[in-house]
């Protein structure tokens, strides 16, 4: 039986309705807590849903916002500023997804892809909230990251009482959440298991592996053996451990054993489901997390709703925990669509993008917000980027190379760099890009990791964008790939023939930057990335990619027959 109590939130009294039991259509009950100024007056409600545990979210009332690298920063406190939500006249309802925390039911696989669709549960949860005497029937949603994904999944189910959503920092393409260009990213392990700055899921014995539930012991043995045969996996103890002992690592085990895109990632992919959304949507994402920005833009473009907004904010990418940013915009959005306040938010430009360098917002009705023309910058000798291609063949122009030893023998990162001259005119770039690499390796696979930097005259630098590609997953989707926007299906591996020169086309994630006069654009290329530098320090621990386990020599060709180059979105001058 739920109980109501009064709590002190910084000198302000808030009532909390603890341990509400919300019935799902299959009889399972989810639990939630509701926070309000009082429960005598009906108000609009903002619903937050995740497997991170509602009690963890309550720390937003007692822990001041923490920025990285504070030891109190916890990446799972993402449901929003409870006190501010209440102060602005909303009921804040925070619930545990099925199988997690205090909720009943089973959670099978990531995003419960092997069980009841999370969007269906969100539908039932929202409609129950809307029917309560303390809610006026108007519901929105709140929260970032996993909470953000839940908003899109819920909106795609079209619950009648859900009137609008505001998603800051959501995750959309589930494959790209974990494999960037096919290269494994460790951050989802932290978010699920709780490592280095994340509490992880509120685990119960009802959170289960979809792989363990689906395949026979013999089939699983073969799949595990296949992953253990990967030299990259062999060199990383946590992966070896997870593959041998999946119990209590169920969600991470499923990710590790599915390193290719496919049905499990696509069947409930919010990017694909966005076409079903018919309510007002505001999507927001900061620069510096390009893979998430990429799918944020794709989701925005797929949403048919007339009232939709996209905001791409400034660098750096990681927000405070507890999450407190973006509430001003969120309340304007919900005041319009849940309270009926005519504040003009629906008449503003649909797209606003912060341009690094000039540090100004540009606005438009679509993405990209300015007309662009794709132009090439060619890799040349002496670490130069040039608008002019190389005239000589490989016998004269040669190649550049780097050798990367496995991490078990060295923590040194071998790297090549190329740079533009010091700019005399601003270089304005907005959109996606492509990094065409003609390369030869002496193994059957490797990683290509590219990072793009704006170097200031004083030597300081800021990340512009990134690109990743697993060499064995170099295949392009010919129907979707366009100039400056390569698309890889990532549905199969084609081992590299050692000694063969191949063209690898890396997708440069979306960005908006003006490289100012006196600055230089610099590209770094490596097989591994530094685990700590001025960019990674802004992200949680474990926000790096699985290093290669093969000792690999890389030869990068940049001659007339092998025109390695960047294809970048230059804003056209009027």
UniProtKB/TrEMBL annotation:
InterPro entries: AB_hydrolase_fold (IPR029058), CocE/Ser_esterase (IPR005674), Galactose-bd-like_sf (IPR008979), Xaa-Pro-like_dom (IPR000383), Xaa-Pro_dipept_C (IPR013736), Xaa-Pro_dipeptidyl-ppase/CocE (IPR050585). SMART domains: PepX_C. The keyword Hydrolase applies. It holds the Pfam family Peptidase_S15. SUPFAM superfamilies: alpha/beta-Hydrolases, Galactose-binding domain-like. Keywords: Hydrolase. The keyword Hydrolase applies. Residues 331-567 form the Xaa-Pro dipeptidyl-peptidase C-terminal domain. This is CocE/NonD family hydrolase. It comes from Nocardioides eburneus.
């Amino acid at each position: 039986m739920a109980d109501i109590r009064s709590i002190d939130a910084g000198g302000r009294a808030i009532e909390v309705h603890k341990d509400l039991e919300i019935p799902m259509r299959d009889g399972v009950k989810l639990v939630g807590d509701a926070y309000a100024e009082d429960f005598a007056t009906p108000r609009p409600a903002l619903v937050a849903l995740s497997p991170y545990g509602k009690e963890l979210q309550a720390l937003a009332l007692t822990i001041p916002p923490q920025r990285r690298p504070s030891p109190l920063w916890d990446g799972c406190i993402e449901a929003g500023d409870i006190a501010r939500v209440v102060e602005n006249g909303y009921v804040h309802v925070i619930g545990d997804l099925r199988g997690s925390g205090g909720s009943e039911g089973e959670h099978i696989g990531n995003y419960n892809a092997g069980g009841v669709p999370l969007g269906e549960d969100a539908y039932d949860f929202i409609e129950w909230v809307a029917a309560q005497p303390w809610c006026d029937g108007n519901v929105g949603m709140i929260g970032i990251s996993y909470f953000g994904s839940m908003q899109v999944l819920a909106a795609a189910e079209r619950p009648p009482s859900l009137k609008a959503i505001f998603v800051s920092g959501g995750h959309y393409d589930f494959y790209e959440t974990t494999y960037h260009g096919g290269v494994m990213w460790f951050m989802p392990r932290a978010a699920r298991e709780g490592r280095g700055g994340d509490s992880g899921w509120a685990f119960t014995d009802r959170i289960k592996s979809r792989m363990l539930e689906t395949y026979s012991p013999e089939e699983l043995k073969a799949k595990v053996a296949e992953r253990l045969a990967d030299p990259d996996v062999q060199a990383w103890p946590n992966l070896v451990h997870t593959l041998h002992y999946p119990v209590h690592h169920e969600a991470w085990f499923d990710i590790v054993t599915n390193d290719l895109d496919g049905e499990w990632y696509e069947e409930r992919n919010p990017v694909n489901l966005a076409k079903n959304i018919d309510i007002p949507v505001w999507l927001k994402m900061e620069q510096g997390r390009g893979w998430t920005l990429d799918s944020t833009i794709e989701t925005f473009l797929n949403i048919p709703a007339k009232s939709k907004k996209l905001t791409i904010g400034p660098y750096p990418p990681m927000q405070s925990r507890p999450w407190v940013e973006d509430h001003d915009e969120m309340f304007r959005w919900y005041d319009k669509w849940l309270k009926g306040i005519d504040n003009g938010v629906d008449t503003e430009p649909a797209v606003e993008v912060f341009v690094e360098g000039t540090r100004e917002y540009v606005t438009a009705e679509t993405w990209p917000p300015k007309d662009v023309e794709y132009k090439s910058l060619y890799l040349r000798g002496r670490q130069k980027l040039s608008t002019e291609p190389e005239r000589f063949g490989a016998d004269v122009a040669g190649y550049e190379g780097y050798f990367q030893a496995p991490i078990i023998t060295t923590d040194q990162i071998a790297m090549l760099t190329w740079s533009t001259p010091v700019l005399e005119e601003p270089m304005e770039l907005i959109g996606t890009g492509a990094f065409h690499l003609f390369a030869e390796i002496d193994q059957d696979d490797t990683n290509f990791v590219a990072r793009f930097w704006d170097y200031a005259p004083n030597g300081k630098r800021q990340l512009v964008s990134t690109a990743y590609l697993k060499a064995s997953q170099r295949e392009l989707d010919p129907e979707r790939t366009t100039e400056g926007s390569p698309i890889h299906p990532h549905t199969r591996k084609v081992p590299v023939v050692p000694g063969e020169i191949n063209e690898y086309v890396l997708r440069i994630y979306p960005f908006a930057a003006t490289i100012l006069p006196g600055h230089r654009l610099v590209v770094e290329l490596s097989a591994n990335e530094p685990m700590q530098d001025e960019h990674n320090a802004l992200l949680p621990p474990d926000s790096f990619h699985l290093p290669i386990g093969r000792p690999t020599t890389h030869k990068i060709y940049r001659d007339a027959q092998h025109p390695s180059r960047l294809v970048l979105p230059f804003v056209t001058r009027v």
